[in-house]
Amino acid sequence: MLKEVTIGKYYPAQSVIHKLDPRVKLAGTILFIISLFPYSTAEVYLIASLYLALMIKISRIPVGYMLKGLRPVIILIIFTAVFSLFLTPGIDVVFTIGSVHITRSGLKKAVFMVLRLIYLIMGSSLLTYTTTPNQLTDGIEKALKPLNRIKIPVHEFALMMSLSMRFIPILMEEAEKITKAQSARGADFEQGGFVKKAKNIISIIVPLLVSATKRAGDLALAMDARCYHGGSNRTKLKPLKYSFRDFAGYVIVIFYFALIIASGQVDFIGY
Amino acid sequence: MQIIVDHLNYTYSKGLVYERKALDDINLVINRGEYVCIIGHTGSGKSTLIQLLDGLLKPDSGTIYFDGKDIFDGDYQLKNLCGRVGLVFQYPEYQLFETSVIEDVKFGPRNIGMSSLDTDVASYEALKMVGIGDELLDVSPLELSGGEKRRVAIAGILAMKPEVIILDEPTAGLDTKGRNDILELVNRLNRENNITVILVSHNMEDVAKYADRVVVMAEGKIYSDGTPKEVFADYRSLREVGLDIPEGMYIIERLREAGIPVRTDIMTAEEAAAEILRFISEES
Amino acid sequence: MIKARNVAFEYNRRDNNNNVVSIERALDGVDFDIKPGEFISIIGHNGSGKSTLAKHLNALITPTEGTVWVDSLDTSDELNTLKIRQTTGMVFQNPDNQIIADVVEEDVAFGPENMGVPTEEIWERVNKSLMTVDMLERRSDSPNHLSGGQKQRVAIAGVLSMRPRCIVLDEPTAMLDPAGRRDVIDAVTKLNKKEGINIILITHYMEEIIHSDRVFVMNKGKIVMEGSPSYIFERAPELEEYGLGLPAVTRIAHILRNGNINIPADVFSPDELVSCILENLRQYGC
To answer: Which domain holds residue C60?
Structure first.
């Protein structure tokens, strides 16, 4: 089941977006997400849609794969739609089902909420599909580097993130293995009273913790043995360096954002 | 006929990019009291098969009959199965979680609904069987040595009084003494307690020494099935699926290929050496 | 290259309430000299002290008594620690718990990155190290997609990229299947013979020591036997006392030798033994 979740997974492909500096993509994603909030007008969303479509096209990620990423949140999307549809008060009733009135503003709100949610997920998925977890951490580390000066351990934080990325799949696999091993000892994780269920879950949690602790100890030793001594005086295999492409990327991102702000001020169709 | 595996198929990650056929039309009969070794290269489907035997996975098609009953039938109480078919996973010491050795062993019997008295007796007996002394009963399992932990984990399965015990590489990572302890224990369970043993192993010496029967798996299929002697006789075809034969048997086979008429009913290194000595002394 | 004099290591055994129950002596009066380029195997049953000894060679732990020198640097002096860890690399038992990055080449780069090696040179080292262990084509893979043997070879590459003169391997094959074990031992042997790197292989698989120049047998924290593999293999009863068994080929050779069949002491592989037996038979005229 967990394997079906595509959010946050890297999708290898050869595209300009894949090659962009992660900092550009981070900035782009953040600005794109921000751009979805202040205005709920058709123009703004038209621009956002075109922009997102263009980016997906350039990234060479199959549209089907992008849509598959929405699958785990489909219930959330439906809920959002239903809530905004039925629970938005107003006098501009479009039609009535029984005692429930659907208003024009409710309809509008539902459409924009759903679009906002979908674009939010697609936009951030685009970042993780085109950026390896390591590039992403590198990007965050480098972008946040100024915080080092106010004694925030940015390097350690980034290292922690990349170690989690490596070990989460391992621990998930291990949890599955332990679950099976305890099932083979008759543990039932679905039926039985609360106490019994809690006990059975402990039979997974404790071994998992023991193993995670052991792994952490081993890992610390292995890092020591490979001369790890914190973030100072470290060099990088893949240092982040801006190229012309990245500046062009920033220009496009800023241009998009400016366009959104500008069109948000004008309301052509006049809702 | 205790276990009948009937046209069993299993696919991993069905419908996904990583889809992989793990078991391909497996048919197998395991008789009561047998000592069966399953051998095969990593990824040959051994682990999948043993998990199906314990009802932990559901097949795509085909089924398994245990004592004549279809274990994947909707009415079958799978929960009872795990008590009767005990499965010891690889590195089973990872499953220990209780505060004391004896409590941990009691987990299984309690889960399958044994009475409190029976649980106590069965757990104590199981620990005796694997050679864990009274002084360790109340110790935290985490404080035991690697070999002891493994034996406690096996006791946790034995306490459920299984009729069949399946062990996935129970000696992995142990030193010579730890290995011998486990293998002798399993052998005793089979010979003295008449428990059917299904053992997954990479160590061909052990297989030759203990097994009544060897099942070779390759690419999700049963590649060959017979007594150790029958299976190991064809070392060339075993090599094709990435398996070696016990070195004693290999040497005997090679000598025969060179035209030396040594006897072939050889299993262990010691027997091979004795046969070579016998042959040389008779010839000279 | 590495010298140990009268090394002892003690640690406190604690109960659940963190009270010291006893003091265990994991190493007890260990002495040895390892010459540059030597391939040393250390065998012993679990708890014999071999892993504790291994960790001393990399300054991961320091002796309670006595001294270890790596390249004449005292491991107890903290100022030497980084230098020592660049000289002797270390590969551990569990392949998963020593791979840090989730891309093969980035993991191999971890050591040189820590050492502050310039980027271009890191690339060079990563390429060469991956080539040496025959893992170049998997460079962009996630370690999670590799087999145990492959992961272990990546771990070796991760140490190689630090350009050590000595590599200590602490039971690198204990968790691998036979194919993986063979690959790792082959890679290690190649490093020693082709690159002249000192190898210290800790193992409890007797068949893995046959490529080494010298073998140390450990028991109860002491080195109780030392010599060439064939010297060690000739002492089966003693080995048994230390909880160690002989590989099948060696056992057969041993019995044959006792039966006055001429089998040279350095015959370790089944094929060699077969040719030896055939040679003997020819001499008897059959």
So the answer is: 2-244
The pLDDT tens digits along chain C (286 residues) read: 899 999 999 988 777 677 787 888 899 999 999 999 999 999 998 889 999 999 999 999 999 999 999 999 999 999 999 899 999 999 999 999 999 988 899 999 999 999 999 999 999 999 999 999 999 999 988 888 899 999 999 999 999 999 999 999 999 999 998 889 999 999 999 999 999 999 999 998 888 999 999 999 999 999 999 999 999 998 888 998 898 888 889 999 989 998 888 888 888 889 999 999 998 888 876 5
Residue of C nearest to A233 (CA): C116
Q: Do residue A156 and residue A94 come from a single domain?
A: no
Quote the ipTM score: 0.89
Angle between helices C148-160 and C104-115 (to 10 degrees): 20
Q: Which of the 8 DSSP states describes residue A259?
A: H
Q: How close does chain B come to A22, measured CA to CA in Å?
A: 27
For residue B28, what are the β-bridge partners?
B5
Q: For B216, how many CA atoms within 13 A lie in the half-sphere containing its CB?
A: 26
A217: left (phi over 0), alpha (psi -120 to 50) or beta: alpha
Q: Tell me, yes or no, whether C253 and C276 share the same domain.
A: yes
Nearest CA to CA, how far is A149 from chain C (Å)?
A: 21
Q: Are residues A106 and A141 in the same domain?
A: no
Mutate to test the interface with A, among B71, B94, B167, B198 (most CBs of A within 10 A): B94
- The token pair that represents A229 in the structure block: 């001594």
The residues on B that touch A, with CB distances below 8 Å, are 13, 16, 18, 51, 54, 56, 79, 82-83, 86-87, 89, 92, 94-97, 107-108, 110-112, 142, 156-157, 160
**Quick one: C106 and C191 in the same domain?**
yes
State the count of interchain CB pairs (< 8 A) between A and C: 95
CB contact under 8 A, B94 and A181: yes
Q: Which two tokens stand for residue A21?
A: 């500096």
Same-domain check for residues C158 and C256:
no
For residues C151 and C223, state if they share a domain: yes
Tell me the pTM: 0.85
Domain count, chain A: 2
In angstroms, the Cα distances linking A47 to A30, A40, A63, B83, C224 are 16, 12, 19, 63, 79
* Closest-CA distance of chain C to residue A138, Å: 12
Establish how many alpha carbons lie within 13 A of residue B284's alpha carbon, considering only the half-sphere containing its beta carbon: 14
- Residues of chain A contacting residue C85, judged by C-beta atoms under 8 Å apart: 224-227
One domain, residues C95 and C166 = yes
Please say if the pLDDT value at position A269 is more than 60. no
Q: Does A140 touch chain C (CB under 8 A)?
A: no
From chain C residues 115-154, the ones with a CB under 8 A of any chain A CB are 115-119, 122-123, 126, 143-144
Residues C111 and C233 in one domain: yes
Number of domains composing chain C: 2
Structural domain of residue A1, as residue ranges? Answer: 1-131+241-271
Q: Is residue C93 domain-shared with residue C225, that is, in the same domain?
A: yes
Shortest distance between the Cα of A79 and any Cα of chain C, in A, equals: 37
B82 to A183: CB separation less than 8 angstroms, yes or no: yes
Domains of chain B, CATH where assigned: 1-76+165-174+199-243 (3.40.50.300), 246-284 (no CATH)
| A207 interfaces chain B, CB cutoff of 8 Å | yes
In this structure, are C251 and C135 located in the same domain?
no
Question: What gap in Å lies between CA C12 and CA C25, rounded to an integer?
Answer: 9
Chain A nearest C-alpha distance from C195 (Å): 20
